[in-house]
Here is the input.
Amino acid sequence: MKIASSTIIKMCFVVLWSITATSCATLFSGLKADIFIDGDIDEPVTISSSAATYEDVTLPTVVEVKRRQLNGQHIQISSEHHTFDDIVLEKTLNEWALIGALTYGVPLCIDLLTNAVSKPKYNQFLITPLESIAAADSLDVTLPRSVVPSSALDFTTKNRLRSQRWYEKYPRHEINVTLGIGHHQADHLSKQFVDDILPNYHMEEEVAEECGIYIDTHLTRKIEYHYRLNRKWDVGALLAWGISSDDYTDEYYYMNVQHKDDFPGFYNKGSHESKSFTFAPSIRYSWYEMGACRIYSRAALGIMRDHLTFDMNQWIQNGPTTSYSYKETEKHFEKTKWRMAYQLSPLGMSVGAGPVRLLAELGYGCLGVFNIGLGICF
Here is the structure.
């Protein structure tokens, strides 16, 4: 119960820290905004915005614009046989920024820096070639231009256009496998289990040193599926298998020169192994994505089964003049524990422009501290 309470406290602290350190508008609205463009055009058009250039697209479509310097920003449209007026954007207040300011105030400065406090006043436009200005006049007599704000697209059409654009830019599905190393969520329970056994048999951990460096390693293998909802969020689930082991020996070791005459010489040798299995739904949020590089954070919450074993053998020295020994007794300790599993990774990176990506994560929980592996996106 204490372990579960401690875990919940840690998670609450991280969530509260994230809320106070992250701006609401920037988090939910992003650094770019969507603009929907429709028109009765019988040929593909090229659209240039502050975020990208979209070539040979058919209408209706959706394009992205940067939120920086949103007011007065131009979107240029051209085609082989027609010319068009530029779409000139206007800005208005983003409601997410108001909510963030009323809730906790301080991170509003981040929204101001990213201009997430603003959103386009109109995010949907109807365009008509300049040669057909009369058609535009018939749509709205107060705006005799080739570009007018419009509300012709329904909610379903907007979602379809967003989905098409996101699917073109970002693969929807990802399957990845990784190997994690370092301190693991299950290590605390393992330490408690071992500490209850060692004092009774006068054993201590065997420390393996190489070049003066000692590394206590927990290995975790993970397979995961994620589905990308939009540019920022994706959801999925992971399966992980973790394992760690340690060796222990009697702190008063008879089998050495100092105690060669102390016989019969009893001494204990033990080994501990922890095997964990985890299933956890997971969410990821992308903070930055440009070209082949993506930076994200992860949170996962699920269930873990931890199986702990400790095997101890007691040996006896055969005599004072020989190093021959034989096994006297064997003891086996075992424990299985179900518990809440979690993983919090503030920094994750995906690198690769093709279907195969290289993944790396830093965090803490059921996947260990450092994870590296490969993902396949489609």
